[in-house]
Design goal:
The structure is a single chain. The chain has a domain at 20-188 and 203-337 and 414-420. The chain is built from ten helices and 24 strands. It has helices at residues 23-26, 91-105, 137-163, 262-274, 309-326, 353-363, 373-386, 414-423, 445-450, 466-484; strands at residues 4-5, 32-39, 47-48, 57-58, 60-61, 66-73, 78-84, 112-116, 166-176, 182-183, 185-188, 205-207, 216-219, 226-234, 239-246, 258-259, 282-287, 293-294, 337-347, 390-400, 403-407, 411-412, 428-432, 441-442.
Length: 486
């Protein structure tokens, strides 16, 4: 039996919080919220960009990276949600940011949900994370500075949002945007899928296959076309913030060497314009369950587009859809806020003896300048062998009125997100991926059986049944919130 460790947080009024909030929080008895954005664009360049299998130095920024935070309080509970323009952020880095934010606000760390957007054009969140190939010394020094800047920026965004707490009205809406999401894992004709990094030929599906290839058979799964938006406005009706959620990996086609928040940042700018948001308005887009979803229709030939053209197109269409849905929201002045955080212990995947020996042979005498994908996966296999046998991951469920949010630290497959939405006891629910850590891809057991990039050892690092255990735990938390919070 695997051990499930539950860390209790305030699920209903009267429960004892693990870390007592400040008196300023407890003295408020009405629904309040505050929002803030803090620029986390790197100040010191060059820096590598993560989200690739090679070293890509950034020499400038096309647009700003931000940590966008929302704090909600109902007089009993206070919750902070921060969406960070980063590819992913390790738990250790986020834990430090939470400790710093707790010291500044009194909000307990286990009442903070911090998630990365998954832009592939952001610097490493911690020194040495995501590097590919040799790196010059100045870049390594800049990584250390950026890690500190990132932690400080995340904490500052939560602190500023807390300082801006004011009486508010909230509401939420759901809409559809179907033509911007496609399943990226395809069944192919027999014998047309390249071997995996360890030489295996058992993959039945291929990630990002050649578009319009005659070898394509069909996508291996569904998509989630839903966009959900939580709206916050002042009691005078002024828009203060929107937290949206959409299950699209990222867009890309960013010029070489450019830092960018990708379509997540562009959405923030677009929704601010669509809703006539003022200087303090914060629009944030969280990543849903997009581990096997992107914006490429592989059944048709790809059309060449200018850099940022598709970023603007996707973000603009999504902002249009959210703004239209937003116009129909009936905002309310009363809504209970509640949260449950749990920790689930998962078993780490380990290489077979054959793969371990093969990996050690592959890396013998290899210099950093010669690293290929094969070498990278060999090192990942060795690291998993040498590392701990299990990992504890943070899972969170949040209730805002009849809106539910589930959060987990993985690049989650869309099937898991759809299942949580269908089974949630709350009126509306969405799922935020890459929250409170970054533990790799989370395929379902069925997709593990199909193979493909997302299931390879080193891409997926936890037990094959992990998605089922996580889904069950998140639904259990949502059910408790539905049962115990009026």
């Amino acid at each position: 039996m695997k051990k499930l460790e539950l860390v209790l947080v305030a699920v209903a009024a009267g429960w004892i919080a693990l870390a007592a909030p400040s008196c300023a929080i407890e003295s408020r008895s009405e629904l309040q919220a505050g929002a803030a954005a803090v620029d986390i664009t790197p100040r010191d360049l060059p820096l590598p960009l993560i989200g690739s299998f090679r070293y890509r130095p950034a020499t400038g920024a096309h647009d700003a990276l931000n940590s966008r935070a929302l704090v909600l309080a109902d007089g009993t509970e206070t919750v902070a949600i921060a969406i960070v323009d980063s590819c992913y952020v390790p738990r250790e880095t986020l834990d430090e940011a939470k400790r710093q934010a707790q010291a500044e606000t009194g909000i307990p760390a286990d009442r903070m949900l911090i998630a990365a957007t998954h832009t592939h054009t952001a610097p490493p969140p911690a020194p040495g994370v995501g590097l590919r190939g040799p790196e010059p010394a100045p870049s390594m020094q800049n990584e250390e500075r950026y890690s500190r800047q990132l932690i400080d920026g995340i904490a500052a965004s939560i602190a500023r949002a807390f300082e801006r707490l004011e009486p508010v009205e909230i509401g939420w809406a759901s809409t559809e945007l179907a033509d911007k999401v496609f399943n990226r894992r395809w069944f192919m004709k027999e014998g047309t899928i390249p071997p995996d990094p360890f030489g295996g030929t058992t993959d039945q599906v291929r990630m990002n296959p050649p578009a319009a290839s005659p070898d394509l058979v069909k996508p291996s799964g569904p998509v989630d076309t839903e966009a959900v938006a939580l709206s916050i406005r002042s009691v005078a009706g002024e828009p203060l913030a929107v937290l949206a959620n959409y299950s699209l990996h990222y867009v890309g086609n960013i010029p070489a060497g450019m830092v960018s928040a990708d379509y997540f940042g562009e959405f923030s700018r677009a929704i601010t314009t669509r809703l006539n948001g003022g200087d303090g308005f914060v629009g944030a887009l969280s990543n849903g369950t997009s581990g096997n979803i992107n914006n490429i229709d592989f059944s048709t030939p790809r059309v060449r587009k200018e850099p940022f053209e598709q970023v603007r197109n996707v973000a603009g269409k999504l902002a249009d859809a959210v703004a239209q849905a937003h116009s129909g929201i009936e905002h309310m002045r009363e809504a209970r806020i509640a949260m449950e955080q749990t920790e689930l212990t998962l078993t780490r995947r380990k290489p077979t003896r054959q793969i371990l020996e093969q990996s050690r042979t592959i890396l013998q005498g290899v210099s950093p300048s010669e690293l290929t994908r094969r070498h990278i996966y060999a090192q990942r296999a060795i690291d998993l062998h040498d590392g701990p046998d299990d990992v504890s991951v943070i899972l969170q469920a949040v209730r805002i009125g009849d809106l539910g949010i589930a959060a987990l630290p993985f690049e989650t497959f869309v099937e898991t997100g759809l299942a949580i939405k269908r089974a949630s006891p709350l009126q509306q629910t969405f799922v935020i991926s890459l929250a409170n850590g970054a533990e790799g891809y989370l395929p379902t057991p069925e997709h593990h059986a199909l193979g493909g990039y997302e299931t390879w050892l080193g891409t997926s690092r936890v037990e094959i049944q992990a998605s089922e255990r996580i889904e069950a735990q998140l639904l259990s938390s949502l059910q408790r919130l539905a049962n115990t919070v009026p």
